[in-house]
Design goal:
By secondary structure, the chain is of the alpha/beta class. The protein folds into two domains: 217 residues, Rossmann fold; 59 residues. It is built from ten helices and 14 strands. The longest helix has 16 residues. The protein is globular. The chain starts with 5 loop residues before the first strand and ends in an 8-residue tail after the last helix.
Length: 305
């Protein structure tokens, strides 16, 4: 069995009034594109901080490429590149100077060729010699991504990398990250843009109140939990028997959840029996957002093994 890119074993993080992580265990394989999802306060950033050595777990163990993040911190940190959620930057340097300084933190003194490549791929060429404080929020976020990549880490953690950036940058960033993943880099993504996670991630873990409540390949997660959505525009009342299946309503338009495609006919039959005319209908599979809401709202959802 290969050495995991990231492994957490029974990680607990307690603060005086709250338990941020409660026996979290996961294993992320080398080369995997892994999504870590959850609502605000679920423990995602706490877990990332422990992986990066910025916080210490109350108990449990975390390794990066087999190196313990506490006892072998220096090597573990060399294997990791982290794009933080917050826009943190030094206002006294240009973009290129910032990346050279970041390279120096990892003992890299002749890194200009790779810096140039990263600058080009993140479309920072026009701003390479601009002072950091003069950049827009989106440009600053690009520099944060570049900083995480300057030492060519095998594992890259992206904590909300596209928050507050425009569509063009988002597409360019994902194209670049996709190439890195194809080249063998392990990518760990946290994001509130669930369509990004659905498109990019091979496997997803969902955190709720500091615990993993779902963890499996994205396709299996969608197939097992999502079901089918029906959007109906009705002329007449919704049959009372269908009310428990309604997940959204706006005027005479209803969105219903059914377990499988074969159940669509029973919904149509109920509408016919009630004398409600269907003016419009759309049927499609639920997406990751539907799965996420289903998992987070289910108090009986079992913790993943």
């Amino acid at each position: 069995m290969s050495i995991p890119a990231i492994e957490a074993r029974d990680v607990v993080k307690r603060y005086p009034r709250v338990t941020a992580l409660d026996r979290v265990s996961l294993r992320i394989e080398p080369g995997e594109f892994f999504g870590l999802l959850g609502p605000n306060g679920a423990g995602k950033t706490t877990l990332i901080s422990i992986v990066a050595g910025l916080a210490r777990a109350t108990s449990g163990r975390v390794t990066v490429m087999g190196h313990d993040v506490v006892s072998d911190y220096r090597t573990a940190r060399r294997c990791l590149g982290v794009v933080p959620q917050e826009l943190v930057f030094d206002p006294f340097f240009t973009v290129r100077e910032t990346l050279r300084i970041q390279s120096g933190y990892f003992g890299l003194t002749r890194n200009d060729d790779w810096i140039d490549e990263v600058i080009a791929n993140l479309d920072l060429g026009a701003k390479a010699d601009a002072n950091m404080r003069s950049l827009s929020g989106g440009m600053k976020r690009r520099v944060l991504v570049a900083q995480a990549l300057v030492h060519r880490p095998p594992v890259i953690v992206l904590d909300e990398p596209t928050a507050g950036v425009d569509v063009e940058l988002r597409q360019g960033l994902w194209a670049f990250v996709g190439r890195l993943n194809k080249d063998g880099h392990t990518i760990v993504l946290t994001t509130h843009y669930l369509e990004e996670a659905q498109q990019m991630c091979e496997r997803i873990a969902m955190l709720k109140a500091g615990r993993i409540v779902a963890m499996e390949p994205t396709r299996e997660l969608l197939a097992r939990l999502s079901g089918v959505k029906m959007a109906l525009k009705l002329r007449g009342p919704l049959p009372p028997a269908l009310a428990p299946q309604v997940v959204e309503q706006s005027g005479d338009r209803y969105v219903l959840k059914v377990a499988q495609p074969a159940d669509v006919e029973s919904v149509l039959a109920a509408c016919r029996t009630a004398g409600s005319q269907i003016d419009d209908i759309e049927v499609g599979h639920s997406d990751l957002e539907d799965v996420f809401l289903q998992v987070m709202s289910d108090p009986a959802q079992k913790r993943a093994a």
